[in-house]
Write a structure and sequence with these properties.
253 residues; alpha/beta; two-stranded antiparallel sheet; 9 helices; globular
Length: 253
């Protein structure tokens, strides 16, 4: 993931992003019995938003791993039960069968080799352990409304590809987990739209859009689209839907 963005701003974005998938994560945690787990690993933990949540699920030892040391600087500013380490998802620095569960959230789309990443997750889980991919998007099914904002969605998809991501990874979740030797339950999240009572979420989303679209759209065009988006949101016309998939995997017998 590109890092030309301050860690504090990333933390704001990750917190907002996590709010979209809260209900699905809670369900996945229950299905994987994380409250009874002894050891949990989150890969691609970023600034620790999900890691800190996992540390509150039960009494497990929780480890957060990220490849970017700048992201991990924020995790040292807080008191936490979790342990944070730097490492690569393609080659996890842990022995086989070290964790009861491995969790990731918007990670696989950023991996150069998502199958290898999933194989590493499968390697470090204990027998009968679980791999939870809580959210992976598929921009190939994105819906933008009103029509003036369709171009915005297309440019964001292009921006993700330029940054090295696979914006259509959601549809591949089943094959990725199968190739990693995991039996998987795969599903897609439903969407909900509410008119925000504050502009906090809108501002967080647009800060990320402007970061992604820098160089792809002129400043004046970005301002025009932002104004259209704000007006549509307040009028109840705004719809942005990106199919987002999850997968709950276990090792094959």
């Amino acid at each position: 993931m590109p890092r030309a963005y301050e860690p504090d701003a990333w933390h704001t974005w990750f917190t907002h992003q996590a709010s979209w998938t809260q209900s699905t994560r809670s369900w996945l945690y229950r299905e994987a019995r994380l409250a009874q787990a002894s050891d949990i690993l989150e890969i691609g933990c970023g600034t620790g938003v999900i890691t800190e949540e996992l540390a509150q699920v039960g009494t497990a030892r929780v480890v957060g791993l990220d490849i970017d040391p700048a992201m991990l600087t924020l995790t040292t500013r807080r008191e936490s039960r979790a342990l944070y380490v730097q490492g690569d998802a393609h080659a996890l620095p842990f022995p086989d069968e070290s964790f009861d569960a491995v969790v990731c959230h918007y990670l696989l789309l950023w991996l150069a080799d998502p199958v290898q990443g999933a194989r590493e997750m499968a390697r470090v889980i204990k027998p009968n352990g679980h791999v939870l991919a809580c959210a992976e998007p598929d921009y190939g099914g994105r819906i933008d409304h009103p029509p003036e904002l369709v171009a915005l969605g297309q440019r964001q998809t292009e921006a993700l590809r330029r940054q090295g991501a696979d914006p259509e990874i959601g549809r591949r979740m089943g094959e990725i987990f199968t190739a990693a030797g995991l039996r998987a339950l795969v599903g897609a999240m439903a969407g909900q739209w509410t008119i925000p009572s504050t502009d906090g979420g809108f501002e967080a989303e647009w800060a990320m859009r402007e970061h992604d679209l820098n160089g792809l759209l002129a400043t004046e065009e970005l301002r025009r689209l932002r104004a259209i988006d704000r007006q549509a949101l307040r009028a109840g016309r705004r719809m942005l839907f990106v199919p987002t998939f999850y997968a709950l995997g276990r090792k094959n017998d």
